[in-house]
Specification:
248 residues, alpha+beta, Carbonic Anhydrase II, 5 helices, globular, binds zinc ion
């Protein structure tokens, strides 16, 4: 009698646990050795676009085509929720309420995260840090707004975030809702535009990329603190542009 009652519970516990383990681990990938970006495409069938894609990101933005790019409309009322160390980056999860509107669609901000050094290059120039604001519309189309940082004054919003940096992989720290996400962006939000992909596996394509022309500043100490926490550079190298236009 006792077994009959406990077996289903054991089953539930076992499979529930395994499900969580699979979901959170997935296929391992990284930035060095056997897990480095040049191997991503062969680590898992689901990652094949990393090797085969013709619209991959990041890129070296150059050879611009002049275009009448409409202003991006930013709604900035969502606050910051928490800061996660996922071992690949430091990610800031955002509450609902922040979005961009472009191409007649609204893309809601899900999270933003950081790379050091920058992933995209501007006319061949690498910057010390880059932030990616990741958005999705209601059909699941993705849009990334990229912000470049150059070395200079200490950045007050980065200061606030870095005070809560989660030291260990898998750790999450709650944030005080002092800043809204786009407070990081400069006032002038003119941008470059191209079609690209996620810069991490599975390297999904069809991502609208908007790279803000103006730079934010970050102090060398702030970059060093982030780089030290990651233990390694977390930038995918630039990918071939092929026939894609890069609009400015
Ligand atoms: Zn990114």
């Amino acid at each position: 009698m006792k077994m009959r009652k406990t077996l289903p519970i054991l089953f539930l516990a076992l499979f529930g646990f395994m499900g969580i383990a699979f979901a959170s681990e997935g296929v391992k990938w990284g930035y060095s050795g056997n897990l480095a970006p040049e191997h991503w495409g062969s680590l898992d069938p689901a990652f094949e676009m990393c090797a085969k894609g013709r619209n991959q990101a990041p890129i070296d933005l150059h050879g611009f085509i002049e275009a009448e790019l409409p202003p991006l409309f930013f709604a900035n009322s969502g606050k910051l929720r928490d800061l996660v160390n996922n071992g690949h980056t430091i990610k800031v999860n955002c509450m609902e309420g922040s979005s961009i509107t472009v191409d007649g669609k609204t893309f809601n901000l899900l999270q933003f995260h950081f790379h050091t050094p920058s992933e995209n290059l501007i006319d061949g120039r690498s910057l010390p840090m880059e932030a990616h604001f990741v958005h999705a519309d209601r059909d699941g189309n993705l849009a990334v707004v990229a912000l470049m940082f150059e070395k200079g004054e200490e950045n007050p919003m980065i200061k606030k975030l870095w005070e809560k940096l989660p030291e260990n992989i898998g750790e999450t720290n709650t944030l005080d809702p002092v800043f809204a996400p786009y407070d990081l962006l400069p006032k002038n939000r003119d941008y470059y535009r191209f079609n690209g992909s996620l810069t991490t596996p599975p390297c999904t394509e069809g991502v609208r990329w908007f790279v803000i022309k103006g730079y934010a500043t970050v102090s060398p100490e702030q970059v060093a603190k982030f780089a030290h926490l990651m233990h390694h550079p977390n930038n995918r190298p630039v990918q071939p542009v092929y026939a894609r236009p890069i609009l400015k």
